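Weekly puzzle thread! Below is a chain. First person to post its structure in token form gets bragging rights.
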Amino acid sequence: MAMKDLIENESNCQNTKVNELYLSSHLTYAVLCSIFEFVFKYFKVAVFVFIFFLFIYILYKSYWSPVFYAKELSEVGFNHIPKGKDRSLHIIRAQKARRFGSKLPPPYPNGWFALVESRDLVVGGVVAIDALGLNLCVYRGEDETARVVDAYCPHLGANLAIGGNVCGNCIECPFHQWKFGEDGQCVSIPHTETVPKGISIKTYPSMEIDGTVWVWYDAEGRPPLWTVEESDETKNWGYRGRNEFLVNAHIQEIPENGADVAHLNAVHNVSLLTDVGYKYPFLNYIIGCHNWSAEWSKGEIDHLAQIKIAHQYIIMKFDVFPINVTVHQIGPAHVRLRFHSPLGPMTIIQSVTPIAPLVQKVVHRVYTPRYNAILGAALVLMEAYQFARDVAIWNNKRYVSSPAYVKNDKTIRTFRSWFSQFYSEQSVSLKDALQNPLDW
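Winning reply:
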């Protein structure tokens, strides 16, 4: 009897499970049918709503919230290292094992270098910057002028940029509240009636143009050998955003790319929309590809150089988007790229700042007229995708002091001769900079 009851109970349990499974599957089927019926019925409305909000988002990023795109040092150029939990360690190992070459030029040329975005330095704001082998304090006084001083207080060495306060046009030490004026002289010490003479911090010549605070660096201690006027585009056009990259290379490698005309069609030929053209070249005929021609030349003034670039985007033998670019190199680390396209003009401001002897912070800021702001916002990303192809090479290459030149490389030789003017007798060597990266 007990066995019979046990069999009946098991049978009932099995029937219950079958019924539950049937009800569950039936309910799931009914829900899916309802969803498909709703989507089919309101498909056009859903597409319209999606497109509407996408359009609003594009307008928002173009006019009110500038695009920002950034890549860290290990994010570009290491696709050859397999993914895994120890991948970051393998990237570090690859960076340490890399040979940078011999006879590298000094890592810190003389010239103007970008330190901080103007929009990020508010009145009363203080920013700590490590660049050019220096620790710097950048602050904005109540007169709205940006100033650059040595970061360390001469009293007991506190970092003025870490916890320091702006008082009028002075910077106040966070440790004992000593105040230093516009010329770097100490103007106030608490509980001291008379400030002893000779107490000061080092000040650096600075300027604020092209949306950035720049500092003058010169190994000989000379005042600025040239100054730069604000560009008309940054004064009159709208800011559409910026992209930033950290590059593991000597600073000279970055602007030398402009003189390396042959690399344009080697590295930047495949469509920026996708890299599939590298693997399947025949697709470039359908997807499109870039065709470049360029000419580098020295400027009329010693610290200037110029590049004229003609660009074509070819789809099935048709040039669908021609662009002409005029590039103005101003000193070792400041570049203005002016684009002329069928959809209107655009300008990119490039800066290159050594934050370590062989690590560069490269920033591109995009400006356009109001009517083509959407194109400007897109340019922030498009330019970043193209630039990343260069970064992948820089992050793994070595510097060759005496290349095996061919005829097409004559502009590289000319460029190196031109760029050498930014090194001087007292320029710190790479060896010394690496041994004493922030105290030399």
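Puzzle host: Confirmed. Bonus trivia for everyone else. Residues 219 and 426 are 6 Å apart (CA to CA).
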